[in-house]
Specification:
- It is a single chain.
- By secondary structure, this protein is an alpha/beta fold.
- The chain has a single domain, classed as NAD(P)-binding Rossmann-like Domain (Rossmann fold).
- The chain contains 8 helices and 7 strands; from the N terminus they run E-H-E-H-E-H-E-H-E-H-E-H-H-H-E.
- Strand 1, helix 1 and strand 2 form a beta-alpha-beta unit.
- Helix 1 (16-27) packs across helix 8.
- The protein starts with 6 loop residues before the first strand and ends in a 7-residue tail after the last strand.
């Protein structure tokens, strides 16, 4: 098992990519702590992991707020004694151009993805530095590299994560800590049909566009979880500062 004996903390772990990654990590031997704002969904994920022989903890936490991030880290350390992997996955999406985007939507988008990754990293890093090892992974996006339509705040947040990844990799490589990000394309999670509805599109029309990439399909949460597992594992021991695009060739095209 690739993560046997390791402890992973995953934000946005109650559905979609976060849930799939939590389940995958547990299957590979990790003890997993997940955070999110929906306690019912969080406990459901925990029970799924426990039912399959794993160890899991849910901490209700909103990554936009420093005190809640600090508490999530403290509760994870109290329960498991260490944090080997931090997966900063929480985020929201509002399909808006700059003129359309409200200040509240901008702040929610930036704070959930970019500020949240900063805060969680800030509170996890001291324990990793003390132990001289660790892996931090952020969820960016293909649109954090190329940009996309009606997604100004989202692109700003995800683009920021790509460059913050590189800065953190430079700062903390000497501490034995690797920092990378994964850049998914369109992935079949609850966020995708919600985006279609907000854009006033039928799901059928939206899905055709989402699959218009060299591999000809929409991604799955498991596709991304597998990539995150690689970055978290010792198989990626010489990989840091990387933005790993997992999008069926969308960026390449």
């Amino acid at each position: 098992m690739r993560l046997e004996g390791k402890v992973a903390l995953i934000t946005g772990g109650t559905s979609g990519i976060g849930e799939a990654t939590a389940v995958r990590f547990a299957h590979e031997g990790a003890s997993v702590a997940i955070t999110g704002r929906d306690a019912d969904r969080g406990e459901r994920v925990v029970q799924t992991i426990i039912a399959n022989g794993g160890e899991a903890l849910f901490v209700r936490s909103d990554v936009r707020f420093a005190d809640e991030c600090r508490q999530a880290v403290e509760q994870t350390l109290e329960r498991f004694g260490r944090i080997d992997v931090l997966f900063n996955n929480a985020g929201v999406f509002h399909p808006r151009t700059v003129p359309e985007c409200t200040e509240e939507e901008w702040d929610e988008t930036i704070d959930s993805s970019l500020k949240g990754a900063f805060l969680m990293s800030k509170f996890v890093l001291p324990s990793m530095i003390e132990r001289g090892s660790g892996s931090i992974i952020h969820t960016s996006s293909g649109w954090g590299i190329l940009g996309g339509n009606k997604a100004a705040a989202y692109c700003a947040a995800k683009g920021g994560l790509v460059v913050m990844t590189k800065a953190m990799a430079i700062d903390h490589g000497p501490d034995g800590i690797r920092v990378n990000c994964v850049c998914p394309g369109d992935v079949l999670t609850p966020m995708l049909p919600d985006d279609a509805a907000k854009r006033g599109m039928s799901w059928d029309d939206y899905a055709v566009g989402a699959a218009d990439r060299p591999l000809g399909r929409i991604g799955t949460a498991d596709d991304i979880a597998n990539a995150v597992l690689f970055l978290a594992s010792d198989e990626a021991s010489f990989v840091t500062g990387e933005a790993l695009v997992v999008d069926g060739g969308g960026v390449a095209g």
